[in-house]
Prior knowledge:
Elements: E1 12-14, E2 20-27, E3 30-35, E4 40-45, E5 48-49, E6 55-56, E7 59-65
Antiparallel strand pairs: 1-2, 2-3, 3-4, 4-7, 5-6
Amino acid sequence: xxxxxxxxxxxxxxxxxxxxxxxxxxxxxxxxxxxxxxxxxxxxxxxxxxxxxxxxxxxxxxxxxxxxxxxxxx
Length: 74
């Protein structure tokens, strides 16, 4: 069973590989994520949370490098 969720902007999530991605924005079924080490930024479609707390997604689009940015959280 899939455990889909909507990531929270400003939160850093980890992939099973150990790569860390900050959520820049999100809406149901997709999120804008940025690798905090490289700046690789993508739209992750159908993000899901694994039992160990890591995340994955079904597929990504619009992958590109950009300056690493912070997101203000309320």
